[in-house]
Amino acid sequence: MSIYIPGRVRMAVGLSGMTRRNFLKSAAAVGAASLAAPAVVRAQSGVTLRFLNNETSVASQAALKKACDDYESKFGVKIIVDSSPISGTMQKVMAAVAAGQPYDIMTSGFIAGILEYIHAGAIVPVTDLVKKYDWGKKAAWEYQGENWYYPFDYNLVVNYYRKDLYAQKGLKIPETWDDFLKNCQALTVVNGGNVDVGGCVIPLASDSSTNWASFGNMFAEGAELFDKDWNVVFDQGENADRATRFLDFYGELYKTMPPGMNAVSYAQLMSLFATGKAAHSVYSGRLVEALETTNPELADKYGIFPSPGSTGQKALSYAFDGFCVGKSNQSEEAIKFLQWFAEEHYVDWLLSAWMNNHPARLDIYENERWKSHPMIKKHWNTMMTMKSYIEGDNIKIMAIDTSGPSIDMRACNVFNANVMPEMLQQKVLGNASSADCVAATAQRIRSVI
Amino acid sequence: MVQDRRIVALFIGSISLLAFIIGGPLIYAVMLSFYSARSFMSEPEWVGLSNYIKVLQDPLFWNSLTNGLTIALSSIVLQVVLGVGIAMVLNKRFVGQTIARSIAILPYFLPTVVACLVAQWILEPNYGLVKTALASIGVGMLDWSSHAFTAKGTIILVSVWLWTPFVVTCVLAGLQTIPTQLYEAARVDGAGAWTQFWHITIPGLRSVLIVVILLRGIWMFNKFDLIWLLTKGGPLNQTETLPTLAYRKSFIEYNLGGGAAVATISFLLLSGVILIYLRLFPIDDAKQGR
Predict the structure, then answer these.
(1) Distances (CA, A) of A61 to A56, A290, A352, B74
(2) Looking at the partner chain, which of A116, A122, A192 has a beta carbon nearest the beta carbon of B140?
(3) B38, B145, B254 ranked by CB distance to A262: nearest
(4) Which pLDDT tens digit goes with each residue over B139-152?
(5) Among the CATH numbers 3.40.120.10, 1.10.3720.10, 3.55.50.30, 1.10.760.10, which is that of B52-287?
(6) Whole-prediction pTM value?
(7) Interface test with B, best of A114, A200, A206 (most B CBs within 10 A)
(8) What confidence tens digit (pLDDT) does each residue in A231-254 have?
């Protein structure tokens, strides 16, 4: 029986005698308690980690947030994610360290940055974690006998071509750079003084894109910057000849490119290919993602091949991405998180940029969840071709900032000072002879290392 | 007496605040130029004048200085000539004068980044408006970013577009302070438009022009954003200026000492030029009409 009391609604609850208001209060308390449970665990653990992430796509940020939320609910450790474009990451890390508030975990894509962190004592090794798995070649490099980052992808610079255009013109996948040049020339369309379709796009700007993407052919040809004792040998003997030949080739190739290569951005490298303005482009797997998003029809008509040298040697330029752990009194907690992340959420993380995050860890290629992603399935041949590049010995994988006998800041200095992009500019914009460019570049390398 | 103390207190407070905000970073930058530092994380190492010697021996420094002067002087000359001309037109009475004045100042309201992106997309050599327009009449598009002359020219043109309105506004205000009787008297004496311009308008605008040229000079010589957004110092460092060089050394090559040395030399050079300029064209004298 219920009795009406003004201002108070009594429920027909029999013996309990509970009012509706009390019931609601109790329910709210229970709800709040359950919601606050992770906070209680957090209060127990008392740990908050700070994560600097430079993979800023919506999907990657969402994957990271899900992982962090999951970790917090399971272990009571809160993780605050701060996202920043890759170009600003090192400044943020430096500022945080200088301010006495270092990040506990950070993504990193430049060796120079990681070496700076090591020299400043800002990160700790993650060797034990890295050694648990097998990695593709050059992915898990060591410095001073330790692994300082936990890799997640390669950014191999492959050459993309249009299968439909190749079929129309009866072209074959190039085996030498002369073949490549002929293909580019055959596919270049000039109308009224404007390049309507460029034979290829290979960047020329004084920035990281050119350092990263424009030297595959030079590596294939075998031109070395340093000998085993870090002497600069770029302008000496056979190296000088190789570099000169490469520049002669690049000079001819440049004539087939659309205008604006001197200022081309990463995004434009993709868009010029995706919009049919270029018959070839150099890029990582991200270009396939761009095709699927902006021009799905073309996503069925592309193919890839490595950069050829003059007599059929093959090479690929590359970069990488991975996680570093900051040195602080929370390093142990950060490593625990990274270990858990590498086992529980690594695949989700990779799939957040399904083709660009070309796995560096070899067991991933056998992972059913990763393999069953619809886009991985669709582009399986491309992925397996890229995998073949990181396994065999027939294709060299090299980079400006990993040149030399070991990982070292000297090669990074060459990368950061844009010495090599300026060599290309001297050749094609300054109209200097290839031999002069090589000599000047070697001098510049000596001055910056 | 109490009022005097308040004034002194406010004066000391303002100076202290300025010293903290401006002097602190300035002193830090100058100090940094005497150290070898690869990052803000590692311990800097004292190297004395080594950074200055290296910078002064680097041809890129002198190239950047020349580029900076060329870009600054060219754009200032164009901004002032155009600014004075437009201001004189806008100073005349005509229908729609207020609307014309508002439109004339519009570009000054644009953030530099917006103006540069708009300019880049207009001039983009593959998809840009200019390329499309030229292609429609069968003319090829020039790859402006690949040639030193056109890259510098683009920087100058965009800066003239953005900052001529500032000159227009200042000169327009200056023109309105010149007594109209002077022009009437000149006309009675048979002076033509050109004579009036040289003997009345320019002397009347002297103080305004001295300040405008000084400010535009400082701003253009220190201009970083516009150059970085349009060309990043390329091609072949032909649009590299001292501010972009300082940035490149500090935040791309991570040579903080070298970057600080470039910034310090740039600061000293600019200070020296300003002192000479103000000695040659004293603002007080101009105000007093001397």
Answers:
(1) 6, 18, 8, 46
(2) A192
(3) B145
(4) 888 888 889 999 99
(5) 1.10.3720.10
(6) 0.85
(7) A206
(8) 999 999 999 999 999 999 999 999
